[in-house]
Specification:
This protein is an alpha+beta fold and about 750 residues long. The chain contains 20 helices and 29 strands.
Length: about 750
């Protein structure tokens, strides 16, 4: 009886005239608001954005037939999931360029190759959609009450209110905190139309090229901190994956940061013994871009274009100015060691090309991991191996340079169970695990006497950001430990960044600094400010060195703030603008992007090599298991890309199974290739294929994956992008890098 009563109640509720409206409102409004609460994205503008999109969906769909409304709600649900997945994986919102992936079943797969970052959201959206469908079916014979005509004004008023607040007092929060994704895409489209209209109204006037001297010149005119060249014999650079400057206590104190969580007490204690640069700028996201900037004294792309490290493979002059090549020229042995495989992002090719005598990755380590981690060595195991490596270098008579790169604080974050129990999130636990491992490593260096004759620079490749901390995605750190520490300041004033590191180390040793390098020396004091740029979380930032920080967003709308330095706790908005002035700032970034190559067209990239690559029994991760380094390439609109590959199995007794995938902005792109290809020693895989690029492609990555019991040789993986209609065939491409 009770069960029948319950069923009758549910039946009456679903048939109620208001049930369809309530179910729709719960789906498109209540779930997004709960999502903001659950993920800590609460912001008045974000709530306003959710209300605007929800009210728009309600007035559009309320009395529509279910078969008309369902596709719209499915697309909206996928957008909601895509927002959470991409923010979790790579810290950005999807863009208009991502929309054609909505039909791809693997669209929501994050960069680690795993499933949903927030599976509860997918389940909740599915339940909400089922309830809405149930009300549509059960109430199909009951007329639904109409909405007043004035309801159509609600979304318009809410959108205008959001625009007005953003215009008068723009928020500095991340885009996903301020915008609902459909609203952000709508705003971007409107902004693009507005920009094109402004350009049309201004006519065909040719704008003068921007003055780039302040961003590209080498400046060694400051007062030296050391009266004589540094006394260190060796150089050790430690790049910590994704660590922002806010994790260093000295930096927080110097910049009066409101962020006070002490996740890295060991690093902060060591910082008390060295020279710290609190206002230290990271110019971009991605490890390869950060390494390029710090080791080659140049800005990497301030967008999602082909990384300059990859571009540098096409030339043999600028690479000789990079720090490893310069130190090798002056008698140092140069070494690069990282805890992950080298082929991803072509570091197996880039690092030797810029001057490292020895380039080693995951395959070098013989010690076991303390925990399972898809990218490679956990941080404790990595630093134990690195300490042994330093011990080997200490035995040689030649001075050495060693660059270390950790991977343990890369998403997905892994840490031992006892760390996971002590911290709220896996990310915090991974950072704490890194801090303990780093502390033990530095103590080991001290015990071995390494610190007495080695210049140690601890920094990060990029920043994984901190929710609620202003500019955390651009806030890096530079901790320098020198044998002459008593002659160096504890806190280094001024604005510096990765672009300064190469010139600084050469200047420390009193070695000639090539004019091809940009930036200033950390071992000098300057009386004037300097220009500097960064591009993180979809925002381009430029400081003019004279108290003004400019920030340009996805709508090409720029705002000027009064800010003495680059990284500041609080700034004052002075003006905002679009049009010609905004394009002048963007033109500076474009000019920096072309410092190596003026165009991405007609560049032949060779990602193959004679290296023998052992295969795993199964593919675990599209990114970490990649056999080649063809990632984050740029293909201009209207171009044509051609690919040639040759793969053979090394073991005559074993078959290798090969897959080739492609991703653009982290999302799968169908290439029309077989899902799986078999390779043997007698029957190698030789394939030529091509595809058009009707729209610009950014961050386009090839993922060559293989599994089996043997090993393979990828002797050729050539990629060339050219103008449509060029007649040169792939088979006529030159071997090797051009």
């Amino acid at each position: 009886m009770a069960r029948r009563t319950f069923v009758n109640v549910i039946h009456r509720l679903l048939r109620h005239p208001l049930s369809r409206l309530i179910a729709l409102t719960g789906l498109v409004l209540l779930i997004p608001l709960c999502l903001r609460v659950a993920l800590g994205w609460l912001n008045p503008l974000g709530i306003l954005s959710d209300l605007a999109i929800a009210s728009l969906l309600i007035v559009l769909l309320h009395k529509r037939p279910w078969w008309q409304s369902l596709p719209v709600l499915l697309a909206w649900g996928v957008m909601t999931l895509a927002t959470v997945e991409l923010v979790s994986a790579v810290g950005r919102l999807p863009t208009i360029a991502d929309l054609h992936y909505l039909i791809d079943p693997q669209f929501l797969e994050n960069s680690s190759g795993g499933g949903f970052a927030q599976p509860w959201l997918a389940v909740t959206l599915l339940i909400g959609l089922v309830i809405w469908l149930a009300t549509q079916w059960m109430g199909r014979s009951v007329p639904a009450p109409g909405l007043p005509r004035s309801a159509w004004a609600a979304p318009l008023l809410l959108l205008l209110t959001h625009w007005g607040i953003q215009h008068l007092q723009p928020s500095e929060a991340d885009q996903w905190v301020v915008y609902n994704l459909p609203h952000q895409l709508l705003a971007a489209s409107v902004g693009d139309v507005q920009m094109r209209t402004e350009e049309w109204l201004e006519g065909d006037t040719v704008e003068a090229p921007p003055d780039m001297a302040g961003l590209t010149q080498l400046d060694l005119d400051g007062q030296k901190l050391l009266a004589t060249p540094g006394s260190a014999r060796n150089v050790l650079i430690i790049a910590l994956e994704g660590i922002p400057g806010a994790y260093v206590g000295v930096n927080r104190q110097a910049l009066h940061s409101s962020y006070q969580e002490n996740l890295m007490p060991n690093l902060s204690r060591w910082a008390e013994r060295g020279m710290n640069t609190p206002d230290y700028v990271l110019h971009s996201h991605q490890t390869i871009r950060g390494l390029y900037a710090m080791l080659c004294g140049d800005y990497d792309k301030l967008d999602n274009g082909t990384p300059k490290g990859v571009e540098m493979l096409t030339q043999n002059e600028r690479n000789q100015a990079c720090l490893p090549a310069q130190l090798r020229k002056n008698g140092f042995s140069t070494h690069y060691l990282q805890g992950a495989g080298l082929r991803f992002m072509a570091k197996d090719k880039i690092m030797p090309h810029i001057g490292f005598d020895t380039t080693l990755g995951l395959e070098w380590f013989t010690n076991s991991n303390y925990l399972e981690f898809p990218w490679g060595k956990d941080d404790k195991a990595f630093f134990e191996g690195a300490l042994d490596y330093v011990g080997q270098l200490k035995k040689q008579k030649q001075p050495w340079m060693l660059t270390l790169l950790t991977v343990g604080t890369h998403q997905p974050y892994s840490a031992p169970d006892d760390y996971l129990q002590r911290y709220d999130t896996p990310k915090q636990a991974a950072v704490a695990y890194l801090d303990d491992a780093l502390g033990e490593f530095l103590s080991g260096l001290e015990r071995k006497g390494i610190l007495k004759d080695t210049l140690v620079v601890i920094t990060s490749d990029e920043s994984h950001g901190i929710d609620g901390v202003r500019l955390a995605s651009s806030w890096g750190f530079n901790l320098t430990l020198s044998p002459q520490q008593d002659q160096l300041p504890h806190v280094k004033s001024g604005v510096y960044g990765h672009v300064d590191l190469s010139a600084s180390i050469l200047d420390y040793f009193g070695l000639p600094v090539p004019s091809a390098l940009s930036g200033r020396s950390l071992f000098r004091d300057y009386q004037t400010g300097r220009e500097i740029m960064s591009y993180t979380n979809g925002k381009l930032r430029y400081h003019n060195g004279q108290g003004t920080l400019t920030e340009c967003d996805f709508q090409q709308r720029c705002r000027n703030y009064a800010s003495k330095g680059f990284i500041s706790e609080q700034v004052t908005l002075t003006e905002q603008y679009r049009g010609k002035r905004a394009r002048q700032t963007l033109a500076k970034a474009t000019a920096l992007n072309h410092s190596l190559l003026r165009t991405p067209l007609n560049q032949h990239y060779q990602f193959g090599s004679p290296a023998i690559i052992p295969l795993q029994a199964q593919i675990k991760d599209d990114w970490a298991d990649n056999l080649i380094g063809a990632q984050y390439l740029e293909m201009p609109k209207g171009s044509h890309t051609r690919v040639r590959m040759t793969i053979r199995s090394v073991d005559p007794q074993q078959k290798a199974y090969i897959l080739l995938k492609a991703k653009e902005l982290e999302q799968d792109v169908p290439l029309g290739l077989p899902e799986e290809m078999v390779v043997t020693a007698d029957q190698p895989l030789q394939m030529d294929f091509s595809f058009d690029n009707p729209e610009p492609r950014k961050a386009f990555s090839f993922h060559l994956l293989g599994y089996g019991l043997g090993a393979v040789e990828v002797s050729d993986f050539s990629v060339i992008t050219e103008e449509t209609g060029q007649s040169e065939s792939v088979s006529e491409l030159p071997e090797g890098s051009s």
